[in-house]
């Protein structure tokens, strides 16, 4: 009888990229079981050799009969965000996720693999005359985010424009953002809908990368591309990687959080919880020097 490990995950694209490390850890702990993944972004997992089969959430015909009923299947379907270690910021996401499943964690880290066609098409699509600088300075995990600027996540507008002004004559700057969010002068704004692998292939051609806590910083790590990453309401200790140059905002002491429950700051950036009086959350020169 075939033996299976079933890894079920939900959430955003960045979480899926980070979770490739968890999938690898499951396979390393149970190498003789076929690893089945059910997730929202199956294309992230299709090219990974340690994955046997991938299903998209909601598209699992006959799954119970094929993989659950009278089968020897281990189920890995727990949410790491609601563990004591995560809420208290005691362990990095990946390590804590593996601990939640009682796996022996051996330092597995995210992996992102492009097949030949994805790589060739992506590099051709993003080819430009000048060297490319890739920036993602705004944009968050929620399609219905109520504000175009989220103070907990986005790089302040004035800081972003200073960085762009410094590099725009030397680099072709590509900014990825949502359609309703802020585009900047001196950049090529990318908002078009495309496959996730083509989108992520931007990293393959970018000589410099300025990112926030979002999917691209996870993907950059998976591709071994050190980047400058800015952090405000989230922590690089939990979601980041030491390979990057992580620049952390200093949130003033005594910030009141009347609507916070298990976590301090909401990604959407509730206006009344913003502790900053002006936009000097970061020093533009520190970011520029990091990119240099």
How is this fold's topology laid out?
Elements: E1 3-8, H1 13-29, E2 34-39, E3 53-56, H2 63-68, E4 72-76, H3 84-87, H4 93-100, H5 116-125, E5 132-135, H6 157-167, E6 172-176, E7 188-190, H7 196-200, H8 202-205, E8 206-212, H9 215-222, E9 228-231, H10 236-239, E10 245-248, H11 284-291
Parallel strand pairs: 1-2, 1-4, 2-3, 5-6, 5-8, 6-7, 8-9, 9-10
What does this structure look like?
The chain is of the alpha/beta class. It has two domains: 3-100; 125-291, Rossmann fold (3-Layer(aba) Sandwich), CATH 3.40.50. Helices cover 29% and strands 16% of the residues. It is built from eleven helices and ten strands. The longest helix has 17 residues, at 13-29. The protein is globular. The N and C termini lie far apart (57 Å).
The H-and-E topology, N to C, reads as: EHEEHEHHHEHEEHHEHEHEH
Number of separate helices: 11
- Pick out the low-confidence regions: none
Please name the fourth-level CATH homologous superfamily of the largest domain.
Answer: Glycogen Phosphorylase B
**What would CATH call the class of the largest domain?**
Alpha Beta
* Major sheet details: 6 strands, parallel
Query: What is the molecular shape?
Result: globular
Tally of DSSP β-strands: 10
CATH topology of the largest domain: Rossmann fold
Number of domains: 2
How is the quaternary structure best described? single chain
Content-based structural category: alpha/beta
